Give the backbone structure.
Amino acid sequence: MSRRPNKIASRKRPPLSSLAAGRQGLIVAHLGVAVEVLFADGERRQVRVKRRSGHVVGDSVLVLGEVLERLPRSTELRRRDVRGAVHLVGANLDVLGVVVAPRPAPPTGFVDRAVVAARAAGLEPFLIVNKEDLDGAAELTAELRALYGAALPVFSLSAKAGDSLDLLRGFMAEGHRGAFVGTTGVGKSSLLNALCPDLALAVGEICETRGVGRHTTTVATLHALPGGGELVDTPGFRDFGLVDITVEELIVHFPGFEQAMMAHCRFRDCRHRSEPGCSVTALVEKGVLSEERYRTYLSLLAEVEAGEEESRRRDWKN
């Protein structure tokens, strides 16, 4: 019995010289088996793609017929899920908003992983404490400002009530293209609705029995904000594992070590464990750096070291 030909597989790919004559556009939505491309004249068009095509919201592309050719990326942000799979969050971004809320509380290390990943990718991270009208929000904001306020912007607001959004609007209006990341239920879609009211994105409630949010965003989309700037709405997730981050990058980008980095360690390859002349452990002993922050760093250091070892094993097998 003969197999029917696969029309998509059998379609000949135009040569690159032909693609150069295509129209340049921006991917503003990824729908799984298709992407939506926005052209300079305002036209939007869906183009079919394979599920694992590698295209992502924020990509600049050349479109010729039903073929996309991705243009070089300036930045790309990736994360690893709990199963070890790598996901591309967005491309050609310059800022990353890490959204947290009193409920559901951010998992241990989530903020630090996101900040390190953003900085290593060349993005400027900032924090958003949503649901400032809930009990515990003021304490959470104070805690985060104490931990991160010297290193990155921290915004406290209520997307649902529409309070304290002007500072964030002004920040994005500086011409930034960014994404919000946060665990499911922290209110990313509500925040986008508040910043861009015409969207009317679906908003979910917190599951009372489990204390976590329900997924409401199912596809990634890019939206232009009325006052300026662009934001990617991404599906929620509960983990932000680091991808291809080196120990050196972790040390340089870990939030809270900025003061320690100004006072150089004795050894250039110091990993801030028990090496003599370490500026980080000295600040911990003096109480300038908290024991909790230091333990978080050591946990991420072990994670990054394990990732580097796994990468070496893969290279050796290949």
